Amino acid sequence: MQKLSLCMRKLKHTSLCLLLFLGGIHGLLASTNWDTALDALKTGNYPLADSLFKQIIDEFPNRPEAHLYKAQSSYWLGHYETALYHLNLSDPPVEQKGKAEMLRAYCYNALGEENKAHELMKYIVVHYVPLRDSARAFLVNYYIRTENYHEALNILAQRIADNPRPGLYAMRAEVALYTRDMEGAIDDFSSAIALDPRRADFFQRRAIIYGERGQHNQAILDYDQAILLDPDNDTLWRFRLAESLSSNQYELALNDLGKLIARYPRDIELREWKFECYLNLEQYENASLELEIIEQHDSDNWLLKQYDSSELLARSRMGRLGHFLKKIIQILRREWVFWIPSILFISLITFAFKRRSRRASS
To answer: What whole-number distance in Å separates Cα of residue 163 and Cα of residue 339?
Structure first.
């Protein structure tokens, strides 16, 4: 009996040790899964994180923080209703409550429940100061989508007052354009440029506004700066070319056209603009050559129906003659103090000589 009792004690002890060992292994595995799942969530491996948090929840269904992280992985995988389900089961600590509410708002928004998301973000602005700027960013986009530009401008003004950044000034400039406040848009782009003068897109967007207002020289100056910052951006070259043409600055336009045509020699539109520049500058020989190039690439081009190379060359010869006569007239006008008395003097001498000849003959 004593031996039996001793064996039973040993068996109980062994069983207890085995249970403790297995529990330790199970806890270790759970801990390992938890750390791996958190790392996967941080590094953006959402499928792995989602799978591991699901396993953890299956084993520990009452672990609220697991539901919070499962909600995050589900959101990033586009499973918004699942994310909301797990958010409702989570009980985040105070420091994470704001982020949980923001995640809930994003889920509502993704599901098309924009009004719910809007109200929740307004709540976050009031109650969660660290998340206020992010919530306001959401509200700005919401008001732009719903064409409530006045509210969007108000929220942007609050964001700029709290933390002025070049991107915020640029965004407020874009919203101001919706209200046709072009002066305000220019001022905000100027503020953005003052904070970050290395952004070519700020100069470009301000230049577009100048161009729309007919301030072509200001627009060209902004395109100059943008091209210095981003010289390989062909769009900037084309936009500056358009401003040069709009303001009849054909020499400047020819400079940009030369660079663009070197990159795109088969671009007929560029060739057409170059022809127009030569025509307006009365450089008819160059215009004739450009017309011949256009004909080689596009024999049905509309310019060929309106202009003829030989006619342009004839204009060129007449133009040179006219230019020569203009120069003569200019010289005569400029030197009238000299040539008018000279002509009068020569006329008097001639008259006197003729009169003397008549007397001698009589």
So the answer is: 74
pTM (two decimals): 0.75
pLDDT at 93: 84
Phi, psi at 126, each rounded to 5°: -80, -40
- CB-based contact 124:115 (threshold 8 Å): no
Q: How far apart are CA 337 and CA 347, in angstroms?
A: 16
What parts of the chain have a pLDDT lower than 50? 2-4, 6-8, 10-29, 319, 321, 323-325
Q: Using CA atoms, how far apart are residues 169 and 163, in angstroms rounded to an integer?
A: 11
Tell me how far apart the alpha carbons of residues 312 and 164 are, in angstroms, rounded to a whole number: 58
Q: What pLDDT score does 264 carry?
A: 93
Give the Cα separation of 59 and 158 in Å (integer): 47
Q: How many residues does the chain have?
A: 362
Residue 264 carries which DSSP code? -
Per-residue pLDDT tens over the stretch 62-90: 888 889 999 999 999 999 999 999 999 98
The residue written with tokens 């992280």 in the block is 69
**Three-state DSSP class for 284?**
helix
Backbone angles phi, psi at 344, to 5 degrees: -65, -40
Q: State the DSSP code for 163.
A: S
